[in-house]
Amino acid sequence: MGLQTRANPYPNGNFALMLDFLEELITIVGKEKGLVAVSEENQGYEDIIYSRKEIKRLNPPKNAVSATIMIEKLADSKQDEVSPEVLADGSILIRFKENGSNPGEDSGFGLGHNDIYELVGATNLRAFRAINIAAHVALRVQYYQTGQRILQAESKGREQEEPGG
Protein backbone atom coordinates (compact mmCIF):
# COMPACT_ATOMS: atom_id res chain seq x y z
CA MET A 1 0.00 0.00 0.00
CA GLY A 2 1.51 3.32 -1.09
CA LEU A 3 1.53 6.68 0.62
CA GLN A 4 -1.70 8.49 -0.12
CA THR A 5 -1.47 12.25 -0.58
CA ARG A 6 -4.22 14.75 -1.07
CA ALA A 7 -4.38 18.17 -2.61
CA ASN A 8 -3.88 21.14 -0.32
CA PRO A 9 -7.32 22.71 0.19
CA TYR A 10 -5.82 25.81 1.82
CA PRO A 11 -4.88 28.60 -0.63
CA ASN A 12 -2.14 30.02 1.59
CA GLY A 13 -0.26 26.71 1.75
CA ASN A 14 -0.70 26.40 5.50
CA PHE A 15 -2.17 22.89 5.48
CA ALA A 16 0.74 21.46 7.50
CA LEU A 17 0.56 24.23 10.08
CA MET A 18 -3.10 23.52 10.79
CA LEU A 19 -2.47 19.81 11.20
CA ASP A 20 0.72 20.03 13.28
CA PHE A 21 -1.14 20.20 16.58
CA LEU A 22 -3.41 17.26 15.71
CA GLU A 23 -0.44 15.24 14.52
CA GLU A 24 1.44 15.88 17.75
CA LEU A 25 -1.53 14.71 19.81
CA ILE A 26 -1.80 11.53 17.76
CA THR A 27 1.90 10.76 18.06
CA ILE A 28 1.91 11.41 21.82
CA VAL A 29 -1.05 9.07 22.32
CA GLY A 30 0.62 6.49 20.07
CA LYS A 31 3.86 6.85 22.07
CA GLU A 32 5.77 8.01 19.00
CA LYS A 33 8.17 10.91 18.72
CA GLY A 34 6.42 13.40 16.49
CA LEU A 35 9.24 15.93 16.33
CA VAL A 36 12.42 15.35 14.38
CA ALA A 37 15.55 17.47 14.84
CA VAL A 38 16.38 19.65 11.85
CA SER A 39 19.88 18.80 10.62
CA GLU A 40 22.74 21.25 10.99
CA GLU A 41 23.08 21.31 7.20
CA ASN A 42 19.57 22.82 7.18
CA GLN A 43 20.38 25.38 9.92
CA GLY A 44 18.76 23.22 12.60
CA TYR A 45 21.15 24.25 15.36
CA GLU A 46 22.57 27.59 16.41
CA ASP A 47 24.62 29.11 19.21
CA ILE A 48 23.59 32.65 20.08
CA ILE A 49 26.42 34.29 22.02
CA TYR A 50 26.01 37.42 24.12
CA SER A 51 29.17 39.37 24.89
CA ARG A 52 27.45 42.68 25.72
CA LYS A 53 23.90 43.57 26.77
CA GLU A 54 21.65 43.31 23.72
CA ILE A 55 18.34 41.89 22.52
CA LYS A 56 18.58 39.00 20.09
CA ARG A 57 16.16 36.87 18.11
CA LEU A 58 16.21 33.27 16.97
CA ASN A 59 16.98 32.37 13.35
CA PRO A 60 14.76 29.33 12.82
CA PRO A 61 14.80 27.44 9.53
CA LYS A 62 11.63 27.69 7.46
CA ASN A 63 10.36 24.22 8.40
CA ALA A 64 10.91 24.55 12.19
CA VAL A 65 7.89 24.21 14.48
CA SER A 66 9.62 24.11 17.86
CA ALA A 67 12.98 24.50 19.59
CA THR A 68 14.84 23.43 22.69
CA ILE A 69 16.88 26.26 24.17
CA MET A 70 19.58 25.76 26.79
CA ILE A 71 21.13 28.70 28.64
CA GLU A 72 24.83 28.55 29.45
CA LYS A 73 27.05 30.98 31.36
CA LEU A 74 30.38 31.22 29.54
CA ALA A 75 33.72 31.99 31.14
CA ASP A 76 34.82 35.60 31.06
CA SER A 77 37.80 36.29 28.88
CA LYS A 78 39.77 37.14 32.06
CA GLN A 79 39.34 33.77 33.72
CA ASP A 80 39.51 30.15 32.69
CA GLU A 81 36.20 29.01 34.18
CA VAL A 82 32.90 30.33 35.45
CA SER A 83 32.86 30.96 39.20
CA PRO A 84 30.92 28.31 41.15
CA GLU A 85 28.94 31.05 42.95
CA VAL A 86 27.40 32.25 39.68
CA LEU A 87 26.40 28.72 38.74
CA ALA A 88 25.06 27.76 42.17
CA ASP A 89 22.99 30.78 43.14
CA GLY A 90 20.35 30.46 40.43
CA SER A 91 21.07 33.90 39.00
CA ILE A 92 18.98 35.00 36.05
CA LEU A 93 21.21 35.19 32.99
CA ILE A 94 18.60 36.09 30.35
CA ARG A 95 15.03 37.33 30.14
CA PHE A 96 12.78 36.54 27.20
CA LYS A 97 9.35 37.17 25.69
CA GLU A 98 7.47 35.14 23.09
CA ASN A 99 5.00 37.83 22.04
CA GLY A 100 7.31 39.86 19.81
CA SER A 101 7.91 42.55 22.45
CA ASN A 102 11.38 43.32 23.68
CA PRO A 103 12.25 42.02 27.16
CA GLY A 104 14.10 44.20 29.64
CA GLU A 105 16.30 43.71 32.68
CA ASP A 106 13.16 43.58 34.84
CA SER A 107 10.60 42.44 32.25
CA GLY A 108 10.16 38.97 30.79
CA PHE A 109 10.64 35.41 31.94
CA GLY A 110 14.04 34.72 33.51
CA LEU A 111 16.31 31.73 32.94
CA GLY A 112 19.63 30.78 34.53
CA HIS A 113 22.66 28.59 33.87
CA ASN A 114 21.78 25.18 32.37
CA ASP A 115 18.05 25.97 32.29
CA ILE A 116 16.25 24.39 29.35
CA TYR A 117 13.18 25.89 27.71
CA GLU A 118 10.93 24.25 25.14
CA LEU A 119 9.56 26.79 22.66
CA VAL A 120 6.59 25.47 20.67
CA GLY A 121 5.03 26.91 17.51
CA ALA A 122 6.47 28.50 14.39
CA THR A 123 4.87 31.85 15.33
CA ASN A 124 6.54 31.78 18.75
CA LEU A 125 9.91 30.96 17.17
CA ARG A 126 9.67 34.09 15.03
CA ALA A 127 8.39 36.27 17.90
CA PHE A 128 10.98 35.14 20.51
CA ARG A 129 13.24 37.91 21.87
CA ALA A 130 15.85 37.57 24.63
CA ILE A 131 18.15 39.97 26.46
CA ASN A 132 21.14 38.96 28.52
CA ILE A 133 21.28 40.13 32.14
CA ALA A 134 24.84 38.85 32.64
CA ALA A 135 27.77 39.11 30.25
CA HIS A 136 29.14 36.12 28.36
CA VAL A 137 25.99 34.02 27.98
CA ALA A 138 25.11 31.53 25.25
CA LEU A 139 21.77 30.21 24.04
CA ARG A 140 22.18 26.70 22.58
CA VAL A 141 19.24 26.13 20.23
CA GLN A 142 18.09 22.94 18.49
CA TYR A 143 15.17 23.32 16.07
CA TYR A 144 12.60 20.60 15.33
CA GLN A 145 10.20 19.86 12.51
CA THR A 146 7.29 17.46 12.42
CA GLY A 147 7.40 14.04 10.79
CA GLN A 148 4.45 15.22 8.70
CA ARG A 149 6.57 17.93 7.09
CA ILE A 150 9.26 15.41 6.23
CA LEU A 151 6.67 13.18 4.53
CA GLN A 152 5.28 16.16 2.63
CA ALA A 153 8.75 17.12 1.38
CA GLU A 154 9.44 13.53 0.30
CA SER A 155 6.06 13.41 -1.44
CA LYS A 156 6.78 16.64 -3.33
CA GLY A 157 10.16 15.24 -4.37
CA ARG A 158 8.55 12.09 -5.77
CA GLU A 159 5.94 14.15 -7.65
CA GLN A 160 8.68 16.22 -9.30
CA GLU A 161 10.57 13.07 -10.32
CA GLU A 162 7.55 11.45 -11.94
CA PRO A 163 6.84 12.62 -15.48
CA GLY A 164 3.34 14.05 -15.91
CA GLY A 165 2.75 13.99 -12.10
Task: Write structural notes for this entry.
There is one protein chain. With 165 residues, this protein is α+β, with helices and mostly antiparallel strands. It has one domain: Jelly Rolls. The protein contains four helices and nine strands; from the N terminus they run H-E-E-E-E-H-E-E-E-H-E-E-H. Strands 1, 2, 4, 7 and 9 form a five-stranded antiparallel sheet that branches. The chain has a four-stranded antiparallel sheet with strand order 3-8-5-6, with no helix packed on it. The chain is elongated. 25% of the residues are buried. The model is unreliable at 1-6 and 8-14 (pLDDT under 50).
Features:
single chain, 165 residues, alpha+beta, Jelly Rolls, four-stranded antiparallel sheet, 9 strands, 28% strand, disordered N terminus
